[in-house]
Amino acid sequence: MTKVTIKVNDNGSYRITGDVELVDAEGNPFVTKPTFSLCRCGRSSNAPFCDGSHKGVFESVVRAPKE
Hints:
Strand order of the largest sheet: 1-2-3
Helix content: under 10%
Distance between the termini: 28 Å
Oligomer: single chain
Largest sheet: 3 strands, antiparallel
Number of helices: 0
Radius of gyration: 13 Å
Keywords: 2Fe-2S, Iron, Iron-sulfur, Metal-binding
Structural class: mainly beta
């Protein structure tokens, strides 16, 4: 099984890479590719996937704490 990576993009989406199953609240699966982006701004018309609607209107930079 491949390790799943979730990258928090600056001012954008969550980028998911790896073997993962994405399901809705009822357990129904979404069709995904090996790499896909999830919306985190709430503006996508293709939720839960990112459609680029965040560009220019969503600002968020998240960094992991340094050890």
